[in-house]
Each structure stands twice: as structure tokens, then as C-alpha cells.
Amino acid sequence: MSSYFRRYLRGERVAVWEELRALGPVPDALAEDVAAVADETMIRVGQDVARIAAALPELGWVSADGVEPHEPPTEGAIALADTLAEKVGLPFALEACLRRVGRVWFPGDCEALLLSYHLEPVPRGQPPGPEYPDPLCLPSAYTLAADWDEHGTEPGYTFALAPDERRKANVPGGTHDLTLPSQVADPVLHGIAGHPTTTLVDYLRTSIRHGGFPGYSFAPELAPAALITLSTEPDF
């Protein structure tokens, strides 16, 4: 039987990830193969994230809190991700994301993208929808390490991967969470408005397809014209 990784490289990307999710906890015999798929996936995600992050300032984007939109993983962060995989037990997609993508922070203000954090108007309704563009956020390995050290022994531990759509728009809200420890290939993300069973890889696909702002997927006809300069069909 051909490996998942070889099939992935041949272009069977969606089918491979569907089959990996169906495995549940990944058997030891398949771990190396699954890790290769996850690693290649997140290399490609990282390239798309870097492209979007470089383009955002050209559109007038201003960070919500002054930090850069993308901080690629340092050698220290990569080593820490390896440690967390052994110490905590991470889903394959999350581990690869920490090692290959790094910290992502797209919330901010940008009139061209109808993106409002400090600007008016304040969203009035509830997500999902174009009032809540859901700018992509991803944590660094250091964020997970600090959270695990503080809360990891609590029963039913969940990791807040990112603020939710409301908090990314600077209104009171919650978080997008995943359950740890886990040995699955692609973890379910909880708290995604309109997508209660989406997984990390599928969420990233939607994000890249809509230029880093997956909230526009619910009403693409209302997306700002400038979004087309950031959007691309994901190749992962």
C-alpha cells in the first residue's frame, strides 16, 4: 500500500487527510508517515501565512496590539515543540504547526479589508458572518508551554488555540479550543462559529482560501475587493 505521504505529494491532499482523521489515535506503525504529511502540510501553510503577512501592511493593516502579523518559529521554539510532543502528547497537525508555522496574529484595523479592532463600527450581531472576519491567529510553542505548565494537570484540559471571532473584533467573547493530550492526526477545533466540527487543517484551508480571514467564507459576496489580493486556493 502506498504511503500517505507519497499520495499527498501526488495531489491526494484532501483524501489523505480524510483518511488520517478516520484513524482516530494514530497507530505507532503509521506515526512516521502521518508526521511527514503533517510536516509538509504546515510547511505549505507557513508559506501562505508569510505571503499574507507581508502583504497586509501594504493594504494599510495596523496590528491590534502592535505585534508583527507573523513570527516564524525560532530554533528554540522548534525544540520546545519537540519537548511538548513528548511531554503533553500533541495531535500531529498541531505539533507540525508549532514547528513550521509559528505565531500568527492578523487581528487589527484595515479599512480596505473592512477589518475593525479599534475603529468603528463595532459589530452588532453574532458570528458567523462578514461582520466577524475572524482574522487568523495561531500560537507559538511558548504559549502552549506556559498554558500547559499552569493548567495541564486540570481534568479535561483544553488549550485555547486562539481568541474567538468576537474577541478578534474587540468585543467580549471566548476562545477556539482543542483538547489535549491527543494522538490524532488532525484535532477538532471547538468554538468555531458555524463550523462546530471543523478540524485544524480544514480551518487553515478555509483561512487561506479567504486571505487569512475565514469569516468571509460565510458571505463571500460581501467580502471586500482587496481580499482577492490575499486569497488563494490552498495546496495543502
Verbal overview:
With 236 residues, the chain is an alpha+beta fold. It has helices at residues 4-9, 13-22, 31-55, 75-87, 92-100, 141-151, 165-168, 200-209, and strands at 62-63, 70-71, 103-105, 108-109, 137-138, 158-163, 175-179. Helix 3 packs across helix 5 (92-100). The two termini are 22 Å apart. The model has no long low-confidence stretch (mean pLDDT 96).
Mean pLDDT: 96
Q: Could you spell the SSE succession in H and E letters?
A: HHHEEHHEEEHEHEH
DSSP helix fraction: 25-40%
- The Rg value, from CA coordinates, equals 17 Å
- Give the overall shape: globular
Number-wise, the strands total 7
Main β-sheet description: 3 strands, antiparallel
**Secondary structure tally, helices:** 8
* Helix/sheet category: alpha+beta
Biggest sheet strand line-up: 2-3-5
Distance between the termini: 22 Å
Q: Note poorly predicted spans.
A: none
Counting copies of identical and different chains, the oligomeric state is single chain
Strand content: 5-15%
